[in-house]
Model the fold of this input.
Amino acid sequence: MDKRRISLVLNHRPTELWVDPRASLSEVLRGEASLTSVKHGCNVGECGACTVLINGETFNACIYLAIWADGKEVLTVEGLSDEEGNISDIQQAFIDEGAIQCGFCTPGFIISSLPVLERDEVPSRDEIRRQIAGNFCRCTGYEKIVTAIQKTARARHGG
Amino acid sequence: MYDFSAVYIPESLEQALRMKHDHPQARILAGGSDILIQVREGRLAGIEVISIQALDELRGVTLEDDGTVLIRPLTSFSHVSSDPVIRRCVPVLGEAVDQVGGPQIRNIGTIGGNICNGVTSADSAATLKALDAELEISSVGGTRRLPYAEFNLGAGKVDLKADEILTGIRIPRDSWENTFGHYIKYSQRRAMDIATLGCSANVRLSKNKRKIERFRLAFGVAAPVPIRAFSAEAVANGSLISSELIENIAQAALKDVNPRSSWRASKEFRQHLIAELTRRATRAAIEKAGGTL
Amino acid sequence: MNVGKPVQRVDAFDKATGRAQYTADLCPPDALVAKILHSTIANGKVTGFELEAALAVPGVVKILTCFDVPDRQFPTAGHPWSTDKKHQDIADRKLLNTRVRFYGDDIAAVIAVDELSADRALRLIKVTYDEQKPVFTPQDAMQPGATVLHPEKPDNVIVRSSYEIGNFDEAIRESGLIKVSGDYHTGQVQHCHIENALSYACIRDRKIVVVSSTQIPHIVRRVCTQALGCSFADIRIIKPYIGGGFGNKQDALTEPLNAWLTTQVGGRCVRLFYTREETFVCTRTRHAMDFHIESYLRPDGTLIARSVRAWSNQGAYASHAHALVANAINAFRMMYPVGAIKGEAYTVYTNLPTAGAMRAYGIPQIGFALESHMDDIAAQTGLDRIKLRKQNMMRLGYVDPVTTITCHSTGLEECIDKGRAFIGWDDKRNLYASQTGPVRRGLGMAIFCYKTGVYPISLETSACRMVLNQDGTIQLQMGATEIGQGADTVFSQMCADAVGVPFDSVRATSTQDTDITPYDTGAYASRQSYVSGMAVRKTGLALKAKILEYAAGMLDLPPDSLNLVDGWIVSSSGESLIALREVAMGACYSLKNSVHISAEETHHCTDNTYSFGVCFAEIEVDIPLCQIRVLNIVNVHDSGKIINPVTAEGQVHGGMSMGLGYGLLERLVFDPVTGRTLNNNLLDYKLMTAMDTPDLNALFVETDDPTGPFGNKALGEPPVIPVAPAIRNAMLDATGVAVDSIPLNPEHLFTEFRRAGLIAGGEN
Done:
């Protein structure tokens, strides 16, 4: 099928890509864009391992057509580090709290935590659970993931 | 890569309707959270699709001059939930669709897609039935209106002709004014689940809050399609609030339903839930309306 | 010392930044795509294929069927190979199978240039079968005249085993004994690691190179040689980071077929990525087991005689076969090793997806049965649940009469006391004593014991290699694998302490490559920190000795007067003499005496030890809604010395979560007629989401096990064991309803509550 050109802001950088209209965004991100933090765990929007942020909202990139990203701002975990490679507070919290085990679901969880971190107040553990309920983890029981997100929120709100 | 034989990408509703007219076999792709999965599974492999995802004119919620809440079909579940008009006029609908899947699914899934699939477990369906919603359906030939009550023709079948697209969901003022609703989704998990049963009730009470002036009750998964429970409503309408009444409503609801046994749940369990959720949803709606039991 | 400290995981940064590379991230983009055609019957024979339409699909390179594969059966279990024929794993499958034994069996493979073409071709292949009636339960499969799955086992029983300690029949003659019996059932569940089973393979340097998400690269290599009939030199397995395994990847899964497929296309790279649906059905599952337990006890609670009979549903292929239920009936004996005890177990083929290893290997099954049974005893006799257990449980110094495994350390009693205090057992028990409403609360607990590694049932062996860099830092190479549990981190901690260098001086090679990294059987049986950890310790000491010897030459001092502490060569009085950095530099570049210092040791482990623990749970049951809410839950573990408190807690949390799923929601559902798996996806298979998971509490009682390399013993698997029975016992406490099978999902509770009269039968 003929490829179509899409323009998007990918990890803060204006980007043009030629994509097959049948391609999922996750395929394009992992392939052409070499952003392999976006993982495939089910390919049908159930596991959350391919979660990306599009215009500030979380989406499963595996059930999002790449052509739909035209004109959008897309963020993956690769875009959370700054130009000099300094990682973000939420990534550091995942490391510090031991919220990472096999690591396969980790990028998806980090992306899913971003909207709740934008709120005006420190979310409760249950509010955090609700925000990450679309991401499965089989290693951690979510315990330290919830803690990492809450600690980051606390730090952002001045401890 | 999704196995589509053609992808049509309209830039306006007008163009979308034209494409649907020219390619009646093509499926409308809204959020895709249902169709794409079926393509991946192979059930819909090889289909043609018309992707209307980018048509912002089909997005958003407005309050019309006559008090009708108009929801455009591409509005995502999360936008329905957070919309100020929904929160003010029909909070029960926002609460219902806030129980769909997980955050990612609520961001991509659309309310229009949810009801056009025609599945009985759709989380918005019971509430929209209980709100007596009306649908706006368009084709190149024009627009027609259809009570949502008449939309579901059978399991997975809806009254959409090959050249038609759902363009609006209307909730009339009378359905929400002075009306308080409650939705209970019963599922095994608190997220990422399909309903074993969905129960949506809404009430309008008398001024002294002791009598039910109007009661509406609808279910998902209590029959092959989402349904209203008219006998239960008849029992409630005009009756004084009491524990006995709640029980009578619950028993009457069982006459309205026709749940099936499947590997997901038995008919007997669903019947048990229909009665129990009716009790709980009715009580909650009455309490929200200021009534006491 | 680094052991015992919560050092940061060595792989955390790469994983938090998305840089950690897993199999799919490494696969060349131009790899050919292989897709498997799975049978749509559960029992029968493939009689033919119509391939023309599929072959005509543009992009299809080749289609191989069960009629094309080598006529050679091979085993898949991730066991160390036994040179004794009697103990070898059962070789009962081919690369693709003509004889179909479950709905989803591998019968053909399409190789195409991309996924779309491969999928299209799959849909166009027509298969004809000669179908037979399938059997789905051990009981049915053992009936005379039942379909025979494998001709080698004409009664479908793979193994029957039994033991008797003491004289059971004599023991039960004692007068005044109380008899309690029960039947218990555990369902079939799946591992649900978030990364599916997958691999890719090509031929390079005259070798078949398979990159795979596996827990056991060296075993997979051996299995590939058996499946393909080739030499070890022909096979190279590379294991990058893996997205979880939990025992499923302790089996050869996609690798043997993938290795063969590349040989069919001239060594071109072929990828074989299972979908989630295939991972559910076509890899491995946890065995469903049935247990019949009888106990005879004195009125004071002393157990006098106990027996267990167990039936393990193996599914279509042997995989790990009888090892799991044998483990289960052994643990039945070990947990309460008093009085006369007998056990009998059957492992039986059926036409269901194959069962294999899964976290704690048969013990969650017996743990549910046995610990439910202990509460049934307490409920029927009025004995105190905790006292009954303490009175009869394994004590320090116990030597198992069958396996000889010895209790070298135990903190179980302290674990129970700690958990009891944490949950507020004594206060709440009174509070919840006489509830009658629709919503009731209850408390439950369950204990377990778990051995560490597989000795003496199987071989335990591990090798480690350390190479000293020019600046005194160390390259650590293990055959043991990091699968998310934190192995690379704790090995690095152990290495630093064994050699005498700072933690940051150690760099572990995370990727196992059978061409390069030394031999180890892999990640399973909670063995690595114990068995491979000892290999690290031995190698570390050997490396240190070599360093000291070289340093002694430089310093002109006797080697035994020196020590290596925190990167410094120190004298016997503790005085720092020279930095390791200078010694290492000298050793490498010396014009007079250049020595490249490295060490490699094998640890052949001939010991074992028990770890212990307990789960306490407080739940609320909404009877009309048939729902359980966990209000408070804690696991307390004696796993010896804790190497890293943070990763240890993580292991416990994950196991608790898996145990909650096992007890409350998870089960594979099969069509009763066709045997098709109905819930082969993450929507219909009820893995717990974050919203379903309560706060998880992990506590430890640290003992110092004399056989562990650093006083440590098993931890990875055990946390899953006691959770389901603790929940079930809390249900019994709250409602008086003893449910004897899991999961306690709503429909199941509905049936049980109706039977118990808590819910009226039939609303109409």
